[in-house]
Model the fold of this input.
Amino acid sequence: MKRRSIFAFIALSLAMLIPAPGRFVYGVVLVLQMNLLVFLNCFFTLSIKQLGLEKIKTVLVLTFILSITILYRQLMIALQPEIVLTLGNVMYLCPISSFVIGYLFNSEEKTLIENIKDTMFNLLFYSLYALIFFLFRDLFGFGTITFFGANHMIFEKVLFNFEQVRFFTVFASLPGAFILTSCVLFLYIIIRNKMSIVKNAEVNK
Done:
């Protein structure tokens, strides 16, 4: 993992994974929001460059992604009001992550297509990780699996009783989410460093 990827991972975790309730359905909503913001921001950033507004780029980008967030939130209120009510202001933290990811992976030297491919490829990794993160907390923290249900309600399927998941319920809490994120990042960095050492040793032979 490159340094800029680590920064993006930390931003994503602090602004989306840790504050959000540990339910899979909430993760799906936030991941969709993240991908929408980053994808549209690629086009908006190109428009800023073409219009010669680079001096106020930051203000324009933040205003744009916040506007898209408001529209997305209003759409989710119409479709799944219970989810929006539970997430609360967490949905307004997603623009922070999308802004950081766009800043780190977008390049003015690349074409629009190249920027979209590079940014969305990196975002795919974070999206998959986020979904697995929320699924793990849902399964082991609560013993359930949640998804979109009928009549604007959340579908919940109980898979394990409390006695079976009692040891893992800490992961349903905010400190548990922070611990889980820190452990995953720590292990990934260790594995990545070990692979780099092995690769460099083979090159030096």
Remarks:
- The mean pLDDT is 82.
